[in-house]
Design goal:
The chain has 502 residues and is an alpha+beta fold. It has four domains: 100 residues, 3-Layer(aba) Sandwich (Rossmann fold), CATH 3.40.50.20; 69 residues, Dna Ligase, domain 1 (2-Layer Sandwich), CATH 3.30.1490.20; 244 residues, D-amino Acid Aminotransferase, Chain A, domain 1 (2-Layer Sandwich); 51 residues. 37% of the residues lie in helices and 23% in strands. The protein has 16 helices and 22 strands. The strands form six sheets. The chain has an eight-stranded antiparallel β-sheet, with helices on both faces. Helix 4 packs antiparallel against helix 5 and helix 15 packs antiparallel against helix 16. The protein is globular and about 70 Å long. The C terminus is likely disordered.
Length: 502
């Protein structure tokens, strides 16, 4: 068993991994930039080492520094979490060359699945269904010809990376040139690789993914599906397990295909096979994420399997403790990503000090957070600051618990996505499970605006009432009551505000 693990990450996922290690009796090493000196993961780890300035490229993306710290601290393994270097084959290889265990897949598997076109080629050999698309290294003129043959709308996608970066939807041939240029620019900035390819856009599709676990002894299982269709600009905002669109037969079929895709690259560790599911129940391979997923808690709650602990066991050379027949899905779980963003202002990133914090509790509620009261949220990193997960025996109960938890959640000092999630939970179409990946483009703006306006008016009226009481008390203390002690225009404004609120 590993004795000490370095967590090469920050925020809520670093805290999550540290807790898993502590529960297995493993000491932990945290790393931090200048911006994270007082971060929660630094406080929770047994040791912590400074690795550089706030910019990720000078700290959390410096694989050489991370390996040096691991050697200095005597760590025998590194867990990369997600993001940063989690899917960097070069870093995984460097960790292995340093005789340190990498808690994740092999460099070869990361490389095979990290490039989307290579991944498509590998899984095709395993009989995995693909979205119609183009091969690599086509010139723009050839891509234009291929787009006409595929039929619009089409997706321009970066060959490397993920997270919705380097991706553009093109519905009109006249927009293809600009779409290609924009996707190339974004891909180059994000991944250092501007190569792109095309895929047929599957309309009215859902984004459904399968969680897999595989060890180095030839055992590979799946833990069912997650529904990830609530997205904005290809960025997931809400996930749930299971999916209302998947029955037992389809789950078994998709799970078998996911396992075949993983075995095609001799995969080990936790991983996720992402699919598009069309309205006719046909599914297509999108990509494989060769790492722990942000949304892993919903699968953990429904299956009872601790995915992070299993990753540690697998990296330590142990066999999976469970077989496919041992996996049983019970209940329903929903996760809301709590981000430091302003949903009223096109989800602009927010920053500032958290001056007050109250996290929800109660039956079926789980919070994974990297913040605390007094913590300074910066603009240097991903805006996700916490994850709120609700579990219930049914989907309806999970939604009701999520609504209750969101109302209890208080983060003062900066804008967050909580109002957006509250509006989504109140959406009848979401409650009925009638959505796809384009849902947010037309179904949440009105309720969100209404909720925010209601909240604004309520604050105005509350302030007016407070002020009115103060004036009345002053008037009474001076022996003056009635209209003589209060301003007529203030009373009128109060009544106007109350009527607007009602």
């Amino acid at each position: 068993m590993f004795k000490k693990v370095l967590v090469a990450n920050r925020g809520e996922i670093a805290v999550r991994i540290i807790r898993a290690c502590q529960e297995r009796g493993i000491r932990t090493v945290a790393v931090f930039s200048d911006a994270d000196r007082t971060a929660l993961h630094v406080r929770y780890a047994d040791e912590a080492y400074h690795i550089g300035p706030p910019a990720a490229r000078e700290s959390y993306l410096r694989g050489d520094k991370l390996i040096d710290v691991a050697r200095q601290a005597g760590a025998d393994a590194i867990h990369p979490g997600y993001g940063f270097l989690a899917e960097n084959a070069g870093f995984a290889a460097a960790v292995r060359d340093a005789d340190i265990a990498f808690i994740g897949p092999s460099p070869e598997a990361i490389e095979a699945m990290g490039d989307k076109i290579t991944a498509r080629e590998r899984v095709t050999q395993a009989g995995v269904p693909l979205v119609p698309g183009t091969p690599r290294h086509l010139r723009d003129a050839d891509l234009a010809a291929a787009a006409a043959q595929l039929g619009y709308p089409i997706l321009v996608k970066a060959s490397a990376g993920g997270g919705g970066k380097g991706m553009r939807t093109v519905a009109d041939p006249a927009d293809l040139e600009s779409g290609l240029a924009a996707a190339r620019r974004e891909a180059l900035a994000a991944f250092g690789d501007d190569s792109v390819y095309l895929e047929k856009a599957i309309e009215a599709a859902r984004h459904v993914e399968i969680q897999i676990l595989a060890d180095r002894h030839g055992h590979c299982i799946h833990l069912g599906e997650r529904e990830c269709s609530i997205q904005r600009r290809h960025q997931k905002l809400v996930e749930e397990c299971p999916s209302v669109a998947v029955d037992a037969a389809l789950r078994e079929q998709m799970g078998a295909v996911a396992v075949a895709a993983a075995q095609a690259v001799n995969y080990e560790s936790a991983g996720t096979i992402e699919f598009l599911l069309d309205k006719n129940g046909q599914f297509y391979f999108l990509e494989m994420n060769t790492r722990l997923q942000v949304e892993h808690p919903v699968t953990e709650l429904v299956t009872g399997v601790d995915i992070v602990k299993e990753m540690i066991r697998i990296a330590d050379g142990r066999q999976l403790r469970i077989r496919q027949e041992d996996v049983h899905m019970k209940g329903w779980a929903i996760e809301c990503r709590i981000t430091a963003e302003d949903p009223e202002n096109n989800f602009m990133p927010a920053s500032g000090k958290i001056v007050a914090l109250r996290e929800p509790t109660g039956p079926g509620i789980r919070v994974e957070s990297g913040i605390y009261e007094g913590f300074e949220v910066s603009l240097f990193y991903d805006p996700m600051i916490a994850k709120l997960i609700a579990y219930g025996e049914t989907r309806a109960e999970a939604i009701l618990r999520m609504r209750r938890a969101l109302k209890e959640y208080r983060i003062a000092g900066l804008k967050t996505s909580i109002p957006f999630h509250m509006a989504l939970m109140d959406s009848p179409r979401f409650q009925w499970g009638q959505f796809d990946t384009r849902f947010l483009e037309s179904h949440t703006a009105p309720p969100l605006a209404a909720a925010q306006e209601h909240e604004r008016l309520a604050a105005i009226v509350a302030a007016m009432l407070h002020h009115e009481r103060g004036l009345r008390n002053i008037a009474i203390s001076h022996g003056v009551e009635g209209e003589q002690g209060q301003s007529t225009w203030r009373r009128s404004a109060l009544l106007t505000g109350m009527r607007a609120l009602l």
